[in-house]
Amino acid sequence: MVIGAIYVCPLRGLASLEVPEPERFFRTISAARDLGLKKVLVPVLEESLVETKRAKIKFLDGLVRTLDMAAEARIDAWLIALPQSLLGLSWAAPAMVRAVRDSAAPPVYVDGKVRHLLPLDWWRDPSLVEKKIGLLREILSAVGGHPAAYGFVILNRALEWERPDSQAADFVTKSFAAEIREIDEKIAIYLGFGLSEILDPELGQLLVGQVDGIHLSGLEADPEGINRPRGIEGELVLAGFLGSMASWLFAKPVQVEVGWSPVENEELKEKALDACRILARQSLHGVTWVSLVDPHQLLLTQPPWALREGLESVGLFDKSGDPKKWVGTLIEALSDIEENEKSCEFLDLSLEEYLEDPPMHLTRLWNRFLEAEGFGS
User: Fold this and answer.
1) Average pLDDT over residues 300-316
2) Most buried pick, 124, 182, 226, 279, via CB within 10 A?
């Protein structure tokens, strides 16, 4: 199992729309590699590329330098290219939202603020689709072929923004994948799915043929009908279950994003270690921790940390850049377990039967999974 983490700069954050501060980035990812992490995922927000020409050039030059440092640290770098969602918050360029405030709309960071705006169905607008593809081309023109660039996560949670029809989604996915493969045929391309795709998988099943794997996120909230044990142990077991479900539904390698729950008293108790072992034996490609390092105090009033209690402390490293004392134990527990050939024995139905009523079957299969793994709720 490949273990990695998302790097959000603890000094610059996300809202600044800047690349990571170089010295802290290199120091942290070098220490992460020494602990056993194999990859670092760096977000590239869409709004970072719609600034002035000078700001865009500065950003892309900084992105190349970021990859240079990953190469020097001997760790694989993945780019989360133009994510729709990150750290529990939606991110969008101004052109991708409707200028209509709605208190019921989910929060989105756009144009320097968190706002409640209705999403725009950009999938149906050829000019906006071409604009997104053009931004991806600009990223590729800067970093394409870089020796540290091992993979891309594309369209992360985009299917949840304004759900497209199958034709539009297929066109955009094919276009993104084709742009990347034109630059580098061997680079890994993962499609970013949220948990909604587990409950409504048919669109995702149409798209996965264009990519190499699935990046599954969304554990900041439990799926409807799932009653999981509290704490980090419950989250890790749920990640194993949902990762196995995604592997089965989409027949692709899956890396699952985890780490929303706090580790109490800076110690992984035996129940949490059991949960690590359950996750590790689910035949997943990898685990991605939601944040590598905690933010500096000055960032706590900024999004996304100001919007979610406890988000400032979910990193594997503290704000000083030192690994937390439980991290080594976590990585060892996730790394040392061989895959279990019987990990999917809880599945007692066909794909066709599951698609008849995904919510009902998901709840039932979750209970079967807990029973099979001997993990009490």
Assistant:
1) 95
2) 279
